[in-house]
Amino acid sequence: MPYGAAALFVALLVWAPPATAQEADGADCSTCHDHGQKLKESAHAAVACLKCHPKHEEYPHPADVPKTPCSQCHGSEAKDYALGAHGRAAKAGNAAAPDCALCHGGAHETTRASTEAFRRSIPETCGMCHDTIAAEFNASVHGAAVRRGVTASPVCSDCHGEHSIIPVKERASPVSPAHVSETCARCHGDVRLTRRFGLPPDRVTSFESSFHGLAARAGSQSVANCASCHGVHSILPSSDPKSMIHPARLPETCGKCHPGAGMRFAIGQIHIVAGREEPRPVYWARWFYLSLIPLTIGLMLLHHGGDWIRKLFALRLCPAPAPPPRPLAGKPEMRMLPWERVQHALLAISFIVLVWTGFALRYPEQFWARPLVMWESNWPVRGTVHRIAAVVLMAVSMVHAITLLASRRLRTHWLTLLPRKRDLYEGFAGLAWAIGLRRSKPVISAHSYIEKVEYWAVIWGTFIMALTGVLLWANNWTLRYLPKSVLDLASTIHFYEAILAALSIAIWHFYSVIFDPDVYPMDPAWLTGISVRRRDSHEPKAPPTPMPQPETEEAPTPNEPEASAAG
Predict the structure, then answer these.
(1) How far apart are CA 425 and CA 67, in angstroms?
(2) Cβ distance 57 to 20 under 8 Å?
(3) pLDDT digits over 41-58, tens only?
(4) Percent of the chain scored above 90 by pLDDT?
(5) Which of 11, 50, 346, 357 would be a feasible disulfide site paired with 386, CB 3.0-4.6 Å?
(6) How many angstroms separate the CA atoms of 28 and 34, rounded?
(7) What is the per-residue pLDDT across 309-334, written as a single tens digit (0 to 9) for each?
(8) Residue 24 predicted with pLDDT over 70
């Protein structure tokens, strides 16, 4: 062999890489296949051919060798796909069910899902099967933003999911009634997005604090949500006459759940933001209660706190010899008649249930509300029990009024609770003694300002709560014949009046009947009718009966002095 040919042969042996290595990385597949250029621009550009085409390193390629499934590299995505509606349809034998290649393209021209081009193409891709829905989406505010190149605008996969697309009827779906508000909140509750696009920043919080939002937070599947009012895919701005939330179409939209809504008055503002975007009557009612509640509860704490401290010093820290007990004239006073005790028991039970269920409606995530909320997806137990207790409370109130008219004894007993001018003096004097501005404890009436304040507060609170509660209960009637602002005002008053009533009972009433040292551990008047508190009887005293005089004894003359008792 010539030296030149031998040297060339040795150089080729040393320099040329092994044929198996070239075939292993697929670098020479382009000599027979034209996928090389497409593969360079795809998401799989760095993947060797043999990764997806095993046993093709030999030529001719072996026949009937299956391709590697996408799940070999994309295991989590494949698992999500199998759980979704598309994967279920494919498993059931539906040959038209979309697979990986239909949405992402062939393995050699797969576009990266993170690119703007892929995101912009999602509505068109989904529209191959869902053409009607895609047309509605393209006409919506979201579709118009996508066409303008707004990458932050939501597309199909943002709301429905990417691979685990679950039917809307299933609770786990992100667009089910249980989760649609959370899905919308990902954009409309994002402070940066709302500032960037000039969107109202409080639409999510105002919805969550509304009746609809509170019910949805507790698991209600039938209450209105974002999609119920704004639409599903054809979401249009409120200025568009075709929009479901256009002022002219609000009666139709709200009328799906509230027949006749807006029949006489315009629906008005929907999203109410406390302290800012709310009707003026609602604003002033809120600030009235925000001023009244601290003032009232503060005076109660001052009065009873001072009373307890004064009695603590007198009984424990500076005890003085106890005076002999002052006997009451005659038999013990009946503080509560039998029928009054029955009414009080029904009132107490209904009030406690109303407080528990009412605040559970407002704060469904709290631990004390869980026994009620756990049934909410199947049965609205909070609202049902709350209304039953309300009916009991209103019935007790009517029975109380009827018995006062029918029973003279009850009426005579009730007259002692009528306010008098002396109550003002006793109230100021009692407060002055409690806070140390008066040395001696004032003498108060048998039915004092303490009982009278509580009784008339219950009467007034029951009237207010019943009136506003009926308006909220009959919300269809309210929206049909009255402005929606009346419903908003009723809701505000009902909530704050409930807070005032609950705190008043816990502080004012419970101290008087439980924690007051004069009656501790409890005044049993609500059970037996007889109180352990020492007080003068409020019953009118009968005039003394004159002693019978002998017929022979003559009355003294004006100039003759009467005989003394000793004489």
Answers:
(1) 97
(2) yes
(3) 788 888 888 888 887 777
(4) 60
(5) 357
(6) 11
(7) 998 888 777 766 655 555 544 456 78
(8) no
Please return the burial class of 335, using the count of CB atoms within 10 Å of its CB with bins 0-12, 13-18 and 19+.
buried
Q: Cβ atoms within 10 A of the Cβ of 81, count?
A: 24
How far, rounded to the nearest angstrom, does the alpha carbon of residue 412 sit from its chain's CA centroid?
45
In the chain, the number of structural domains is 3
Q: Cα–Cα distance between 308 and 302 in angstroms, integer? A: 10
CA angle centred on 520, ends 514 and 522, rounded to 5°:
50
**Same structural domain for residues 304 and 355?**
yes
pLDDT band at 190 (very low <50, low <70, confident <90, very high): very high
269 assigned to some structural domain: no
Which one has a higher pLDDT value, 334 or 209? 209
Tallying the residues shown for the chain, one arrives at 567
Same domain, yes or no: 62 and 104: no
511, with CB counted inside 10 A (0-12, 13-18, 19+), is buried
CB atoms under 10 Å from CB of 391, counted, come to: 13
149's torsion region: left (phi>0), alpha (psi -120 to 50) or beta? left
Quickly list DSSP for 40-57: HTSTTTTS-HHHHSTT-S
Is 296 part of any domain? yes
Domain coverage including residue 219: 100-241
pLDDT at position 345 over 90: yes
Instruction: Name the pTM for this structure.
Output: 0.80
Q: Tell me, what CATH number does 365's domain have?
A: 1.20.950.20
Angstrom distance (rounded) from CA 451 to CA 462: 16
Distance CA(418)–CA(452), nearest Å, equals 7
254 found inside a domain: no
Report the range of poorest mean pLDDT among 170-184, 367-381, 509-523, 551-565: 551-565
Residues 163 and 79: their CA atoms lie apart, in Å, by: 9
Inside any domain, residue 325: no
390 and 519: one domain?
yes
530: β partners: 334
Residues 362 and 477 grouped into a single domain: yes
Mark whether 382 and 512 lie in a shared domain: yes
Do 56 and 196 lie in a common domain? no
Q: Which residue has the tokens 């609950």?
A: 502
Residue 293's alpha-carbon distances to 332, 455, 490, 504, 509, in angstroms, are 38, 18, 17, 9, 16
